[in-house]
Specification:
InterPro entries: Cyt_trans-like, PPAT, Rossmann-like_a/b/a_fold. Pathway: Cofactor biosynthesis; coenzyme A biosynthesis; CoA from (R)-pantothenate: step 4/5. GO terms for molecular function: pantetheine-phosphate adenylyltransferase activity. 44% of the residues lie in helices and 18% in strands. The protein is an alpha/beta fold and 162 residues long. Strands 3-2-1-4-5 form a 5-stranded parallel beta sheet, with helices on both faces. Strand 2 (30-35), helix 2 (47-58) and strand 3 (64-68) form a beta-alpha-beta unit. It is globular. The termini are far apart. The chain binds 4'-phosphopantetheine. The site of 4'-phosphopantetheine (PNS) has 12 residues, from strand 1 and helix 4.
Amino acid sequence: MTTAVFPGSFDPMTWGHVDIATRARSMFSKVVIAVAHNSTKTPLLDLETRVALAKRATQPLDGVEVVPVEGLLVDFCKGIGAGVIVKGLRGGADYDYERPMALMNRSLTGIETVFITGDNALSHVASSLVRDVARHGGSIGRYVPDGVVDAVAAALAAERAR
Ligand code: PNS
C-alpha cells in the first residue's frame, strides 16, 4: 500500500498530467496530486483555480486525489505518509530539470522519485506552451481537460485588464 505524490504547478492541468496520474495510479494504491508553489514561476492561474481544475480532470480516476500544498514538498509527503514522489518525463530536457529536485528531495528526507514516461502523443504538451498558445490567440482545447479553456481565457483577460 504505497501512496505516491505527484507534485507540480499544474498551471494549467493538461492531458499530459492526466496521463501521468493514470499511469501512476496503475502502480501505486493511492496518488495524491500536490498542487504546489514553484518559487521560480509566477502562475497565470491562482492556486484555488489550479486545484479545482485538477480535481475536475481527475474526478473519474479512482484512488486519485488533489490537494494544495504550501511549504516544502517533502514535509507534505512525510505528513501524509507518502512513500514516493512521481514525476512525468517527456524527454531529456525534463530529466535535466527534474533531476536536481529529485536529488534535493532525497537529500532532505530520503524520499525517492520515480519517473514515468508519458504518452508519446502528448510529448509536446506542456503547461507553458499551452499558456503561450492561448496568450497569442491559439486554440488549446485539444490539449487540456474540461474547464481549462475558460479558466485560462478568464485569467488572460484579467491579466490584460491590469
Ligand atoms: O510543475 P513544476 O513547476 O515543475 O513543479 C515544481 C514543484 C512545484 C514540484 C516544486 O517547485 C516544489 O516541489 N515546490 C514546493 C516547495 C519545495 O519543496 N521546493 C523544493 C523543491 S526540491
